[in-house]
Amino acid sequence: MARTVLVWSDELVGYDFGAGHPMAPARLVLTVELMRELGVLDADDLEVLGAPVAEDADLLRIHTANYVAAVRDAEGDGQARESIGLGTVDNPVFPHVHTASARVAGATLRAARSVWQATGPARALSLAGGLHHAMADRASGFCVYNDVAIAIAWLVEAGARVAYVDLDAHHGDGVERAFFDDDRVLTISVHQHPGTLFPGTGYPQDIGAGTARGGAANVALPAGTSDADWLRAVDAVARPLVRHHAPDVLVTQHGCDSHGNDPLTELEVSVDAQRRAAILMAELADDHAGGRWLATGGGGYDVVGVVPRAWAHLAAVLTGRPIDPATEVPQTWQRRVTKLADLRPPSTMSDGGVGDFTPFTDGYNPDDAVDRAIMATRQAVFPWHGLDAVLD
User: 265 and 343 in contact (C-beta within 8 Å)?
Assistant: First the structure.
């Protein structure tokens, strides 16, 4: 069994945009509590490490010096700096904005180091990470520092080839931008069509630049895509491309805002399908990345009903002990949630959704909108890897 690291500190909940903001830190607290009550944290080969604040030198692997200085200044005076995306509705300035954001980056970087420096197969989860929208010189989409890109940049500098798979409903634009012309990094994003959702990027024809053409793959799914079709899309693009790229480390982002109950998106993916996607990522890491897998959280704004269950499933998959979807949610956790939010919590770890799919290579249906989206991506990207868009 691969050694698994969870990077977690209660200080990570300091990444807090304030009351009423969708990125509520309670989602992290509830997730860790659910993991604890389900026994996920009791796994013999799971180690919990603290989350350090990233040094400036690490932030500068991706972000400009002027931007880091401006974020630090915003922490000092609390003033908006809309020219760098801070002080907006999406990214309001909050106390300790630099320190809290740098701690998320430090958490994911520590997870990356634990995976790369292990003597054999290793897995790690940065639960608060996955802030994939932040750009080199501006905050965007609830993201101040791009922890995922920072961690990947460190891995590349250490000598690794990296494959990145982004399962958030929103396009992983910041990570893609950071490595758009770097052939050592493959980026794959499976998201709701950018014509219907922020950030409005991530079309099939966006495939990378220079010697890295074909190094970016974007699957733009129609609103309403549900379990079996979503899983089919993830598998149809990620499996052949990761296999061909032959990475040393697989990095994945597990934003669970693809769920049908998410208030910000329009996909219809259950926690059952998200659990199956995590298992698929584990398979890719074991089969094509030497067992080295770094996973992060990401988006997800149904704070009670979705995020804790989706990420508890993810953590359990990382430990090699997936949770049976029929498992009852512990009564103590349900009672705590009811007192906290006066909401009816889920009673089991399942939505009764679909955890399986028909592989794309079993047959392409040109009348199906999801199959057309898959084919558009495969036709744009696969030839750059010597792969057949229909058969591989």
Answer: no
Answer yes or no: pTM beyond 0.90.
yes
360 contacts 373 by C-beta, under 8 angstroms: no
Domains of the chain: 3-51+99-385 (3.40.800.20)
> What letter represents residue 333's amino acid?
W
- What residues in the chain have per-residue pLDDT under 70? 1
Cβ atoms of residues 130 and 254 within 8 Å: yes
The answer to whether 267 touches 193, Cβ cutoff 8 Å, is no
- 124-168 tens-digit pLDDT: 999 999 999 999 999 999 999 999 999 999 999 999 999 999 999
Clarify whether 96 is annotated catalytic: no
Neighbour order of strands in the sheet with 185-192: 46-49, 3-7, 122-126, 292-296, 249-253, 162-166, 185-192, 216-221
Q: Which of 98, 132, 133, 245 is catalytic?
A: 133
Listed in sequence order, the residues at least 6 apart from 105 whose beta carbon sits closer than 8 Å to its beta carbon are 54, 58, 59, 129, 145, 146, 147, 150, 151
Distance CA 150, CA 89 (A): 25
The amino acid sitting at 253 is: Q
Calpha distance 289→80 (Å, rounded): 42
The confidence score (pLDDT) of residue 1 equals: 56
Phi (first) and psi of residue 55, to 5 degrees: -75, 155
C-alpha 293 chain-centroid distance: 12
For residue 139, which phi and psi values (nearest 5 degrees)?
-80, 150
Q: Contact 186/252 with Cβ under 8 angstroms?
A: no
CA trace torsion 231, 236, 239, 242 (10° rounding): -120
CB within 8 A of 222, min separation 6: which ones?
192, 193, 369, 370, 373
Q: Give the pair of three-digit tokens for residue 101.
A: 């954001």
Calculate the average pLDDT of the chain.
Answer: 97
**Cα–Cα distance measured from residue 73 to residue 87, given in angstroms and rounded to the nearest whole number:** 13
On the 0-12 / 13-18 / 19+ scale of CB atoms within 10 A, 335 is exposed
How far apart CA 180 and CA 300 sit, in angstroms, is 26
